[in-house]
Design brief:
heterodimer; B: alpha/beta; 15 helices
C-alpha cells in the first residue's frame, strides 16, 4: 500500500516563555500582551533549519521499512542558503546514497504540505520519498511574529509498504495573496495587516479550498476526525474549522502555548500530533497556506496503531524541554544582537570547499572506520590503523558514528573559547561498539555533561564564517535524557 | 636510540631576555637581548657560530617564516639557519638541532634561539591558530586550558582522588611557583599568591582557574653549544662545563585520541620520552638522581600528572607529594625553581631554552637567591599540543 510509512519530528530543546518577550518589549509594544501566553520553541545558537531537518529525518528513517530512499524533498522558508542545496547537505548527514534526488522547496510556508502532497502522488515504484519540513523564521524583536513563531521540523517517509496513512484526495488553489514577503537580502519579513490576512486568507481562501475538496469527495466537515490547519493561534483555528463545518473537538491542537508557528513545518508537525492519536479509518484533513492553499485528505490505516509504537513524535519532543530564562541569551544566540566577542572572537579559519568536499563523509556523515585486521573502531578513518599494535595499511571498512550512543570519559566547561553561548563544553566520548572522539556537547543547559554520562549524537552548527557565510556543520554529543 | 649523544655536546653560553608583556620590544629585539648575554657568557664572537636554529611557534605574529629573521637580527655570517616549530617543544627542538649538528661533527659552534612575541594579539591566552585543514572541520571549539582541564577528570577517576584534594594539590602547584617566581628577576609574574586565592580565582576552563594557568609572555632564550673539548678551551678557566646528558622527543601517533585504553590521566609521550632520556643519560632512579626539574607547567594539573610520568612520584601519589611540599624550593626535588611557565612566563618558542637557562645556572652555582644546595643533574620537560595529541621533550643536563 502506498502512503505515509513513518514520521519523525524535531523541536529544539530550548523554550522561551512569551512572558519573557513581553517583559522585554511590553513597554514598547503593549499590544503584544494578548499573545503572551505559554512558550515557543527557539533554536539554540548551533541549530538552524538544516540541523533540525536532519534530526527530524533521522527520527523518520528509524521507523518503518521503506526499502530505500529515492528522493529527498526539503521544505523550508529559512534554509541557510539561497544557493547550496539544503537537501544535499541533508543527504550527506543521513548517509543516503549519492543517487538520491534532492530538492529544496521554499517560497512560501505552503511548501511543507505541498511537498508531502507531491510525494504522495509520485509513483512509489521508483522508491520512497523522504519529505522534510523545517523552519526557524527570523522575527523582528518586539514584533507579533516574535511571539507567534516557533522553530521545529517534521519528516515523513512516503512510499510503498506498510502505510500508516493513505491519500484519499487533494485539492489546491493558487492566488498571489501576499500576507507576508521576505526578500533574499532581508533578514526580516514584511507583513500586511492581520485583520485582512484573517478575513481574506484564513477565513477566505483556506476554508474555500477545504470545502471544495470535501465537495468533490461528497463529504462534509462532519466527516473529518482530525483537522490540521496551518495556524498557530487556537482561536483562529476554531474560526476556520467552523467555516469548514468541522466540529471544534476535531481541530488538532495548534500547540501555540508549547511550540509556536513552525512556518513551513507547522502543518507537518501538527499532522504527526494527529497521527499519534488517530484511529484506523479516521479521516485527516491537512491544509497548507501561503499564496494559495493545499488541502490533503488522508485516511489512517489499520497499521497505524502498531507502527507508531516504534516511533517517537510530538509528545516526546514536547516533553524534551529546557526553559530559556534569559531573553538576551535568545537574542544573542539567534544572532540578532551583535555582542562584543572580543578580539579572540574575530579569529577566522575559513573553510575551503574543496577540503569540505574531500572530508564530507567524515564531517557531515560522521563516518569513521573499523580495521578489518584488528577490529579497532576509529575516527577519523585513515589509511593506516591507529592501534599501535596493528598499524595495518588500507584495510578499513566504513563505520557510522552518528547513530551510536556513547559515554563521556571527561569533560570541561571552557570560558576562554569564543562562543555565542559560553562556556563551550567538550570532552572525550567513548562509543558503544568502540571508538572515541573528542566532541563538543550540545544543549548543555538541559543536561549538563559530566564524566560517565550517556550521550547520543546530534547534527549541529560549529561556526559561521562571517565573511563568506560558510556554515560548518558537525556532530555533537548530548545527554540521552536531554 | 642509536647510542645517544650523552656527554658529546657542551653548552658554552646561555642567554635569556626578561620575560613578560614586553610592549617595549619586538621579537628581533628580544632575540638580540638574549644573544648579547649568551655571547658574553661564552666569550665568543658572533662570527664563530657556524650553524643556527631558530625556534618560533606562532611566527605569523612576529618574526615571520624561515630562518632568515634570526640571521638578520644577529647579523650572522651567512651560515645555515633552520627555523623549527614543534608546539611548546619548539625551543627544545631548536636546541636539539644545534646539539645534533655538533654531535654529528657537522658543526663546530652552533646556536639555538627560541623566541615568541605573544602579546601582540590583542587578547589574553594563547593565540588562535589552525589545527590543520581537516581537524579544523571537526575538532571542538577548544582552547589549551580546556583540553588540559580534561586531565583533571581523567586523573581523579584513575586514582580515585576526591575533587577537593585534587583542587588543593593543583592550587599548591601554583602557590609554589609564584613563591619561586618572586626570586626570579627576569620572570614575568613576581607576586606571591595563597592557596585560597588560587581556589577562588575566576574559572577559565573548569576546573582550572586563572591561577592554574601559566603566563602568556614575550621573550627569547638561546644557547651556544659546541664540543666538550672546545668548551673546555673556552670556559674551563672560569667555570665548569655543562654537558648534554640526554635529549629526547616523543610525538603522539593518534593512539590516545583514536583508540581505547588511554584514560586521560597521564601523558603517553612523556613516559616514552622520559624512559628514552633516562636510558640515554644512564639514569636509573629519576626521583633520586634528578636534583632540579623545569617541567612544562602550562597548567597546574599538567605539572601534577607530569610528576608521575617523569617518575618523580609513584602512580597516584602526586597529589600527596605535592601537598607535602616534595617539589617546593625546599623539597626533595625542587621544580620550577625559577617560577616555571606559571610565573617566569611562556613565550612558546623560548620556553624550552628558558628551562635549560635555569638548569645551566643551577649547575654552575650562579642562580643567586634561587641557588639550590646540590645540583648535579637537571631535567627540562616540554609538552606541546594537547593531552590527547602532543609532542614531548625531555632534556637532561649535568656537569662534565
Amino acid at each position: 500500500m502506498t502512503g505515509i510509512l513513518s514520521y519523525g519530528v524535531h523541536l529544539p530543546v530550548l523554550r522561551l516563555s512569551r512572558a519573557q518577550i513581553l517583559a522585554a518589549h511590553g513597554w514598547y509594544n503593549p499590544a503584544l500582551a494578548p499573545l503572551a501566553t505559554g512558550e515557543r520553541a527557539i533554536c539554540n545558537w548551533d541549530e538552524d533549519a538544516l540541523t533540525m531537518a536532519v534530526e527530524a529525518a533521522r527520527a523518520a528513517l528509524t521507523g518503518g521499512d521503506h526499502g530505500g530512499i529515492a528522493r529527498v524533498l526539503l521544505a523550508s522558508t529559512s534554509l541557510p542558503y539561497v544557493e547550496r542545496s539544503g537537501s544535499a547537505v541533508l543527504c550527506e548527514a543521513l548517509g543516503l546514497e549519492t543517487r538520491v534526488m534532492p530538492l529544496d522547496a521554499g517560497g512560501s510556508t505552503r511548501a511543507g504540505v505541498a511537498t508531502l502532497l507531491t510525494a504522495l502522488q509520485l509513483d512509489a515504484a521508483s522508491g520512497a520519498t523522504l519529505c522534510v519540513a523545517s523552519d526557524d523564521r527570523p522575527a523582528r524583536p518586539a514584533s507579533a511574529q516574535e511571539m507567534l513563531f516557533g522553530a521545529g521540523a517534521a519528516a515523513f517517509v512516503v512510499g510503498r509498504g506498510e502505510a500508516i496513512a493513505t491519500l484519499r484526495a487533494v485539492h489546491s488553489r493558487t492566488a498571489d495573496f501576499v500576507d507576508r514577503l521576505r526578500a533574499p537580502t532581508a533578514h526580516y519579513g514584511f507583513q500586511w495587516e492581520e485583520r485582512w490576512i484573517r478575513d481574506g486568507g484564513h477565513l477566505g481562501l483556506l476554508p474555500e479550498t477545504a470545502l471544495e475538496l470535501l465537495g468533490q469527495q461528497r463529504l462534509t466537515g462532519a466527516d473529518i476526525q482530525h483537522l490540521v490547519l496551518p495556524l498557530a493561534q487556537p482561536q483562529a483555528a476554531r474560526a476556520v474549522a467552523k467555516r469548514i463545518g468541522v466540529p471544534a473537538e476535531c481541530v488538532v491542537d495548534t500547540l501555540y502555548e508549547r511550540s509556536g508557528d513552525l512556518g513551513a513545518a507547522l502543518s507537518s508537525w501538527l499532522l504527526v500530533a494527529a497521527l499519534e492519536k488517530a484511529r484506523p479509518g479516521e479521516r485527516l484533513l491537512v491544509c497548507g497556506f501561503g499564496q494559495g492553499c493545499d488541502a490533503l485528505l488522508l485516511e489512517a490505516t489499520d497499521a497505524l496503531p502498531r507502527v507508531r509504537t516504534q516511533m517517537t513524535g510530538v509528545a516526546a519532543a514536547l516533553a524534551r524541554r529546557h526553559a530559556e530564562t534569559n531573553y538576551m541569551r535568545y537574542l544573542v544566540g539567534s544572532r540578532q544582537l551583535d555582542v562584543e566577542a572580543g578580539i579572540r572572537g574575530e579569529a577566522q579559519r575559513p573553510t575551503a570547499p574543496s577540503v569540505a568536499w574531500r572530508e564530507r563523509r567524515t564531517v557531515l556523515g560522521f563516518q569513521g572506520g573499523r580495521c578489518r585486521r584488528c577490529g579497532t573502531v576509529q575516527f577519523p578513518a585513515g589509511a593506516i590503523c591507529v592501534d599501535p599494535a596493528c598499524k595495518a595499511h588500507g584495510d578499513m571498512e566504513p563505520v557510522g558514528f552518528a547513530g551510536r550512543r556513547g559515554r563521556i570519559l571527561n569533560c570541561t566547561a571552557d570560558h576562554l573559547a569564543a562562543s555565542l553561548r559560553p562556556p563551550v563544553h567538550y570532552g572525550m566520548v567513548e562509543f558503544e561498539g568502540g571508538g572515541r572522539v573528542l566532541l563538543e556537547f550540545a544543549d548543555t543547559d538541559a543536561q549538563p555533561p559530566q564524566a560517565g554520562m550517556a550521550v547520543r549524537m546530534v547534527f549541529r552548527l560549529r561556526r559561521v564564517d562571517p565573511v563568506r557565510q560558510w556554515r560548518d556543520y558537525f556532530w555533537k554529543a548530548t545527554g540521552v535524557g536531554a | 636510540m642509536n647510542g645517544g649523544i650523552r656527554d658529546r655536546v657542551a653548552i658554552v653560553g646561555m642567554g635569556c631576555s626578561r620575560f613578560g608583556e614586553r610592549w617595549d620590544a619586538s621579537a628581533t629585539q628580544l632575540m638580540q637581548e638574549a644573544f648579547a648575554e649568551c655571547l658574553d657568557d661564552a666569550g665568543l664572537g658572533a662570527d664563530e657560530i657556524d650553524a643556527a636554529w631558530l625556534g618560533s611557534c606562532v611566527e605569523d605574529l612576529h618574526v615571520g617564516r624561515s630562518g632568515i629573521p634570526l640571521a638578520m637580527a644577529l647579523r650572522l655570517g651567512n651560515v645555515p639557519v633552520t627555523r623549527v616549530e614543534n608546539f611548546c617543544a619548539t625551543g627544545t627542538e631548536a636546541f636539539r638541532g644545534a646539539v645534533y649538528a655538533v654531535a654529528a661533527g657537522a658543526s663546530r659552534i652552533a646556536l639555538a634561539m627560541g623566541v615568541e612575541k605573544l602579546k601582540d594579539t590583542g587578547y589574553g591566552g594563547l593565540p588562535e591558530f589552525s589545527f590543520g585543514a581537516e581537524a579544523d572541520l571537526w575538532w571542538p571549539n577548544l582552547t589549551a586550558p580546556g583540553t588540559f582541564a580534561l586531565l583533571a577528570d581523567g586523573y581523579a577517576a584513575r586514582h580515585g582522588v576526591a575533587p577537593r584534594d585534587l583542587r588543593r594539590a593543583m592550587a599548591h602547584v601554583s602557590v609554589k611557583s609564584h613563591a619561586n617566581g618572586l626570586l626570579s628577576p627576569k620572570a614575568h609574574i613576581r607576586r606571591a599568591v595563597t592557596e585560597q586565592q588560587v581556589i577562588d580565582a575566576p574559572v577559565i576552563a573548569a576546573p582550572l582557574g586563572l591561577y592554574d594557568c601559566c603566563g602568556v609572555s614575550d621573550g627569547a632564550a638561546c644557547a651556544i653549544v659546541t664540543t666538550p673539548e672546545i668548551a673546555r678551551s673556552l670556559v674551563a678557566a672560569r667555570r665548569d662545563v655543562v654537558l648534554v646528558k640526554a635529549i629526547q622527543i616523543a610525538a603522539s601517533n593518534g593512539a590516545e585520541a583514536g583508540c581505547g585504553g588511554w584514560d586521560a590521566s597521564h601523558f603517553v609521550t612523556t613516559r616514552v620520552a622520559a624512559a628514552r632520556a633516562y636510558a640515554e643519560a644512564g639514569v636509573r632512579d629519576p626521583a633520586a638522581d634528578v636534583d632540579v626539574a623545569e617541567v612544562h607547567d602550562c597548567f597546574s594539573i599538567t605539572e601534577l600528572v607530569t610528576m608521575e610520568d617523569l617518575g618523580f612520584a609513584q602512580p597516584g601519589r602526586a597529589v600527596h607529594d605535592v601537598l607535602d611540599g616534595a617539589f617546593d624550593a625546599a623539597g626533595r626535588l625542587p621544580c620550577q625553581i625559577d617560577g616555571g611557565l606559571k610565573c617566569f612566563g611562556h613565550p612558546i618558542g623560548a620556553s624550552g631554552l628558558r628551562m635549560l637557562y635555569e638548569l645551566h645556572a643551577q649547575l654552575l652555582g650562579r642562580a643567586g637567591e634561587r641557588q639550590l644546595a646540590r645540583v648535579d643533574l637537571g631535567l627540562a620537560h616540554n609538552l606541546g599540543g594537547f593531552p590527547f595529541q602532543n609532542v614531548c621533550s625531555v632534556t637532561l643536563l649535568g656537569r662534565a
